[in-house]
Amino acid sequence: MPTITRLATVETTMRDGRAAVVSLRLDNDGFHTHWLVPGDAYRLRFVDFHWQVTGGSWFVAGHSYRLTRAGLPLVSVPTDRGEVVLLPAHEYQIDQADQGEWWLSRCR
């Protein structure tokens, strides 16, 4: 069973019931900034030189959803503790805490 270690609260903005990680977007058939849906959890994995996102009610198996910073490869996620650098050897998860904040966690 994987161990999940909470790292920090992700910096987000809200619009139309969805959240956006500040300065990050999903790039797939165009780009999407507000992609975090309350109640969903998202897994971040390093695949083919990019961070890819899976999970969530909008996820379609077989599609590649790359997480980028303004179209550039992702290196870190903005949080209340500053930028958290993502290490390709790990997987990460973004999900909601009880207070509605979005958390970044490392999975092992």
What do these coordinates show?
The protein has 108 residues and is mostly beta strands. The chain is built from no helices and 13 strands. Strands 1, 4, 5, 6, 7, 8, 9, 12 and 13 form a nine-stranded antiparallel sheet that branches. Strand 4 (25-27) and strand 5 (31-32) form a beta hairpin. The radius of gyration is 13 Å and the shape is globular. The mean pLDDT is 90.
Shape: globular
Helix content: under 10%
The biggest beta sheet is recorded as: 9 strands, antiparallel
Beta content: over 45%
Key traits:
108 residues, 0% helix, mainly beta, single chain, two-stranded antiparallel sheet, 52% strand, globular
How would you summarize this macromolecular structure in one to three sentences?
Helix content is 0%, strand content 52%. With 108 residues, it is mainly β.
Give the helices and strands, then pairings.
Elements: E1 4-9, E2 12-15, E3 18-21, E4 25-27, E5 31-32, E6 42-47, E7 50-54, E8 66-69, E9 72-73, E10 76-79, E11 82-85, E12 91-96, E13 102-107
Antiparallel strand pairs: 1-13, 2-3, 4-5, 4-8, 6-7, 6-12, 7-8, 8-9, 10-11, 12-13
